[in-house]
Amino acid sequence: MLSMSLCYQTRADNMMVTVVKAENLPRNALTGPPDSYVKIVMRGPDGAEDDTRHTKIQRKTCDPVFKEAFSFPLPSDLFADYSLVVTVYDHARILADGVIGQVRLGAMATEESELQHVRRAVRHRGKPINVWHDLMEAE
Fold first, then answer.
1. Which pLDDT value is given to residue 126?
2. Which helix (H) or strand (E) holds 113?
3. Residue 58 DSSP code
4. According to the model, what pLDDT value does residue 93 have?
5. In 3D, which of 55, 53, 62 has the Cα closest to residue 84?
6. pLDDT at site 31
7. In the sheet that 65-73 helps form, which strands lie side by side, from edge to edge?
């Protein structure tokens, strides 16, 4: 599970995304608890990556605490067309980083909680809305 906060800042036309923490991330059978980090990608109407940010790596824990905030420019008239794809990775030093799970907010949302989180942030502008999301398989 992943705890995230969204806060739409009207004056700046920004969506503030705070990655708070994750819980119960799976252990690797060989290496133990993951070295996890979170990558946030803002995708436009065409699906292209418009902006990408990532947290610092939290080493050897199944319950990492991130508490990192990122601001994404997002005019309010474009909410319906944009997505935030939030992916939790296990950092690997030699091979490619492994995907643990993903949350898709906005136009690419697949779960009701993902849709409702953005809607609540838009409805309650200026107030952080914190929600726990189940991590889904990455697409």
1. 92
2. helix 112-123
3. B
4. 76
5. 53
6. 81
7. 65-73, 14-22, 2-9, 129-133
Look-up: residue for tokens 């508490």?
A: 67
**How many whole angstroms separate alpha carbon 4 and alpha carbon 16?**
10
Q: Residue 94, SS3? A: coil
For 81-124, the pLDDT digits (tens) are: 889 999 999 998 778 899 999 999 988 898 999 989 988 998 99
Collapsing DSSP to helix, strand or coil, 8 comes out as strand
Q: What is the pTM of this model?
A: 0.93
Q: What are phi and psi of 42, to 5 degrees?
A: -95, 125
Are 139 and 105 a contacting pair, CB within 8 Å? no
Long-range Cβ contact pairs of 103-109 (< 8 A, separation 24 or more): 103/2, 103/4, 103/133, 103/135, 103/136, 104/136, 104/139, 105/6, 106/79, 106/82, 107/43, 107/45, 107/80, 107/81, 107/82, 107/83, 108/43, 108/83, 109/83
Q: What are the φ/ψ torsions at residue 78 (nearest 5 degrees)?
A: -110, 5
- The CA distance from 37 to 21, in Å, is 10
